[in-house]
Amino acid sequence: MPGRAGALRQVGVVSQSSNPAENDFTSPDWAVVDLLPSVPTVSTRGPVRQSVVGDARVGDRVCQQGISSGWRCGVVRAVTPNRILTDIKSRPGDSGGPLMRLSDGAAVGIATEATDDRVPATRQATMYVSLRDVLARAGGGLRLATTNKGGARVDPRRAVAAEEIAVFTSEPAVMPTAPTTVVN
Asked: Where is the composition biased (Polar residues) (predicted)?
């Protein structure tokens, strides 16, 4: 359990980061974490399998997978070149989780910030950084993994070696020892 001595362990190393200035809410906040080979990298949560990277559009029905709040769905309310705003209510710990469009399963964003419980329920919102923007800023060496190094499709129901997939997160490369799944 987080908060107790020895509860956290290193799972990887940050190899690239946007490293925005403190309190800069306009710049993307992302990092690439190179996972250690011993870390499982597949989640079986949620009914949508990401197959492509897409661009969010206002009105899209989308769902996010968060480690704290689980699978939640909503609607895209606003889009800028590098940000996506939805009416999904997230919780602390959901940062770094994927945002998927329901119509085609496209991965469109990464959760970065959300309103807190002091905001009325009718105004709850979560902000995401555009996945396409993150990939572009990372220099073209990253992709959404749908196949392993040998060209076989990655089966999200089984663990794969860490080097087979790209992992995107806005959280530090540390996690509780209890969960067996790393990728949200």
From this structure: 13-25
Helices (H) and strands (E) in the chain, counts: 1, 11
Helices (H), 9-145: 131-137
Give buried/exposed letters for 157-181 (b at 16+ CB in 10 A, else e). Answer: eeebebebbbbbbbbebebeeeeee
pLDDT digits (tens, 9 = 90+) for 21-77: 666 656 666 667 777 777 765 554 555 555 678 899 999 999 988 878 888 899 999
CA angle 51, 53, 54 (to 5 degrees): 120
CB atoms closer than 10 angstroms to residue 107: 22
Question: How far is 171 from 58, CA to CA, in rounded Å?
Answer: 27
In what order do the strands lie in the sheet containing 12-17? 12-17, 31-35, 168-169
Q: Are 11 and 137 in contact (CB under 8 A)?
A: no
CATH class, domain 43-138, is mainly beta
